[in-house]
Write a structure and sequence with these properties.
Elements (H helix, E strand, L loop, with lengths): L11 E3 L6 E3 L3 E5 L3 H6 L10 E5 L4 E2 L14 E3 L1 E7 L15 E8 L2 E2 H10 L4 H4 L5 E2 L4 E2 L9 E6 L2 E7 L7 H8 L10 E3 L7 E2 L6 E5 L3 E5 L4
Parallel strand pairs: 3-14, 5-10
Antiparallel strand pairs: 1-2, 3-4, 6-9, 6-15, 7-8, 7-14, 8-11, 12-13, 12-16, 16-17
This protein binds manganese (II) ion.
Length: about 230
Amino acid sequence: MTYIFAAPPTPSVPILGIAERFPVHRIYCIGRNYAEHAREMGHEPEKGAPVFFMKPADAVVSDGRNPGFPMATSNLHHEVEMVVALSGGGRNIPLEHALELVYGYSVGVDLTRRDLQAAAKAKGNPWDTAKGFDDSAPIGPIVPARGRHPIGERLELHVNDHMVQGATIADMLWSVPEIIVELSKLYELRGGDLIYTGTPAGVGPLQREDQVRCSLEGWCELEFGFHG
Ligand code: MN
């Protein structure tokens, strides 16, 4: 195949302990997946239909690279999230087979231009510019599941060594298998898909000079600042 100019590279994420990398196909995200976070955003937690949105695959930031500080915002927020990495996919996946599609787990930050999100919500407009911008998906290394799955691990985010988000993933309203089932009713999932599984309470602003450190207990860590 020849292209009119060099094809963009496949975005990828390192895998802990091996040289091969995880090629990113799509980045799916779920909103309002922790009751206390739903409340801090002004919503009563409910388990009606999950709130899904996407980021572009090349929004991932990994390998110790620092994201650029986003354009066009004066209220950038952090949202620490467990990230699920799929090695298989399909449509209408049955609940009992959902975890078989999981390759591994990581910790990531769903960077959010909260001011643009608030403006979009007020007008009933889509969230794309608030969520799907360049470098909006920092992510740690993917840790292969090898038959283990997080159940009650702590998820934490520290800004300049102060803990601002801390919760257990047992508090997720939609579990990982349930998220996979629901997503696969809307999209054909594929190996290479990443799923950001929602953030606990404590979201807040980030400044250019801030240093962010987050962890999924017993699995992995992620640390970054901003450049530019
Ligand atoms: Mn989020």
